[in-house]
Specification:
Blueprint (H helix, E strand, L loop, with lengths): L1 H23 L2 H7 L4 H21 L1 H9 L2 E2 L6 H17 L5 E5 L5 E4 L7 E5 H6 L2 H16 L2 H31 L9 H41 L3 H10 L31 H10 L3
Parallel strand pairs: 2-4
Antiparallel strand pairs: 1-2, 3-4
Helix pairs in contact: 1-3, 1-8, 3-8, 5-7, 7-9, 7-10, 8-9, 10-11
Length: 290
Amino acid sequence: MKRVMLLILTNVAVMVVLLVMTRLLGLDQFLTAQGLNLFALAGFSLVIGFGGAFISLLISKPMAKFSTKCQVITQPRNADEAWLVHTVQKFADKAGIGMPEVAIYQGAPNAFATGAFKNSALVAVSTGLLQSMTRDEVEAVLGHEVAHVANGDMVTLTLIQGVMNTFVVFLSRVIGYIVDRVVLRNQSEAPGIGYWVTTIVMDIVLGILAAIIVSWFSRQREFRADAGAAQLMGRKQPMINALARLGGLQPGQLPKEMQAMGISGGGMRKWFSSHPPIAERIAALQQQQG
């Protein structure tokens, strides 16, 4: 709940900063004189930028269950399921969080953690991962996902995405208004074609820059979750082994909203990848003390 409050307060703070900047630069008086209500735009940007990210966070767990068709283990049916639940419980207790729901879904090797609150999260692994890894390696992957939950990574990334969305919505419309009124000298009360075209272009351009920033933060959280798994297990070699094995596997595809919480080896387009290359993750673990 504290992180959710941080999410709200940060987005409000972003809008205050944007309004102060326009005031210091003298843009507020100019834009107001041209008919743009900056306070209304700030409120609109806050609702759109923060609202979408917040709603996405709140429905992340049910959407994950629906999209992967994962089966939550309510009562273990065999020794493997009992081991999965026991392992997650052990890590959750050690990390000081509530017991997440544990689930299995059909698919190629992958795993993910999701949920709006660290004490009611979901940790899921694929059948492909269970079939292709040793128990030590699966345990390391489970530790990695529990570390994501304990670190509050779902809320953190939502916070960053919300801030980026707010900047994109606000700045694209301010720039669009300036182009429409100053460059194209539109004198009508309603925004002209210059505003709409510029806004769409800037939404795309600024959206790409925002995606690069969010992806960078996501990659840093992966390094931290790897280290967290090693700490929960008390040794780093199983996580190194799991990553090395994943380097020779094709990670299963996850829905877009869950990819940042899954397992991936990165990609050619590193700037937009939510995960670092596996070689970098292994190197970071090897350099870790202990």
